[in-house]
Amino acid sequence: MAYRSLREFLDRLETAGELVRVKEPVDPVLEMAALADRAAKQGGPALLFENVKGRAPGGFPVAMNLFGTRRRTSWALSSEDFEEHARELRALLHMAPPQSLWDKLKMLPKLGKLATMTPKHVSSAASQEVVVREPDLGILPVLTTWPHDGGPFITLPQVITRDPETGIRNVGMYRLQVLGPRRLAMHWQLHKTATAHYRAYQKRGERMPVAIALGGDPALTYCASAPLPPNVDEYLFAGFLRGEAVRMAKGVAVDLDVPADADLVIEGYVDTSAPLVREGPFGDHTGFYSLADDYPALDVVAVTHRRDPIYPATVVGPPPVEDQWLGKATERMFLPMLQMIFPEIVDMAMPVEGVFHNLCLVSIRKDHPGQAKKVIHGLWGSGQMAQTKTLVVFDEDVDVQDVSQAAWRAFANVDVKRDLVIADGPVDVLDHAASHFAFGGKIGVDATRKWTEEGGREWPEVCVHPPEVVARMDALYARLVPGAENPRRPRIAPPPAASWTPRRGGILQ
Ligand SMILES: Cc1cc2nc3c(=O)[nH]c(=O)nc-3n(C[C@H](O)[C@H](O)[C@H](O)COP(=O)(O)O)c2cc1C
Fold first, then answer.
1. pLDDT, tens only, 339-363
2. Which residue has its alpha carbon closest to ligand 1 atom 30?
3. Which protein residues are within 6 Å of ligand 1, measured from CB?
4. Can you give the three-state secondary structure of 130-197, one letter per residue?
5. Is 284 a catalytic residue?
6. Which residue in 257, 261, 263, 284 is the catalytic one?
7. What CATH class does 6-313 carry?
8. What is the topology classification, in CATH, of domain 342-454?
């Protein structure tokens, strides 16, 4: 079910008892963030702040914790569970004729349901019901989330830019610091697509048009955070998720299309010849303040909005925070794409403690020596996975979604002299521990059972009760301790592929 507005999504949440209207006065400076963070940490409801303290002149309500649970994020993506999208994507990718993954991704817009999901133009847009030229960003209830933040930040934006060479649109979620009534600092990081666009405009000696959409169908907000390749339009992907093409209208001031059903749109230009401006510090999803740094500035020329817009915001900070669910949706939906390049990958997990880039756990179906290390090197070369600091690879019988089980296997299965890959390369811009900005050390850990060819000795099996005994004893336990839940148990390992018994020299018998 596609939502025509953020309000429509909120109505659905309210009917399901997943929305709380906050009628008490709450300050966008520090207070909203503290309340929403608490709700997010406890899997609590979405919040609609209707009485914004020190009300910004616009008087707009603020919606937070929209994506605060797996269920709400799934609903936001027009599904009962976002795993459904992963299944559909897997099927779609298999439809494409055999070719490189890159070509497959380029073909995505032409495949099946996606072919009809190209964003479509409409002449009248709810997001432009009110047009304010020479606006004052002070009309927006922009939050300051942490005490040492450099100022107020817009935290859930869809930043729309266009490649001046190819004309392909990009939509990215990059926080924006409000520097003045008509100025924003653009925190698009070094490795992100909008940075490439900025450089391309700079090379051509041109100013860069930018539109920033807020609200509308939450699937569009999610898509701004999705790590799609630069040639795939995020709004096409949003169309696929919501099952209906995204409606777009011409911007009122810049030559870019904007979502017709958004709540608010900010339009402006980045002067690519102007000096950069100071951005930050900002309490980030690493749980630390990201340091102040220099970024381009946007000069805002127009703000348009619905007659009754809702301003969406999130708070990032020490995990777990709301955006863990955006990350989880990405992990599930991008797994099929990674499996096209690495068919041996069975599952992957990015535990919240690793805040996306610090830790990735991968299980593989191993059928040759050194395969875990191949996967480590390969993932370090795949899109935004390149910034993963710690990659741990397991055999397929390890449930990587169970961090405790994965940790047990990793500690047990690793000879630290033999099984670590220590390298350096690009790391996340937010990695404050890296020796240099955006460049530093990385570690890959081969936590699979080691074959003889890999220097393993005789390898013991995991202790597992016989399944028929477990079934009988579970039934007995349920009678002895009524209401008790069954524990998570290690999976039964399939026979090691090493039973192929390769001859010395590697030729199979
Ligand atoms: C809540 C949230 C805030 C984010 N803030 C930023 C940011 O300020 N700068 C940035 O470069 N990436 C940020 N990201 C990550 C990007 O949105 C993400 O890497 C996205 O895939 C970038 O899109 P691109 O590949 O089109 O550049 C944020 C993600 C989330 C979920």
1. 999 999 999 999 999 999 999 999 9
2. 225
3. 170, 172-175, 187-189, 192-194, 225-227, 314, 316, 323, 326, 384
4. EEEECCCHHHCCCEECCCCCCCCEECCCEEEEECCCCCCEEEECCCEEEEECCEEEECCCCCCHHHHH
5. yes
6. 284
7. mainly beta
8. UbiD C-terminal domain-like (3.40.1670)
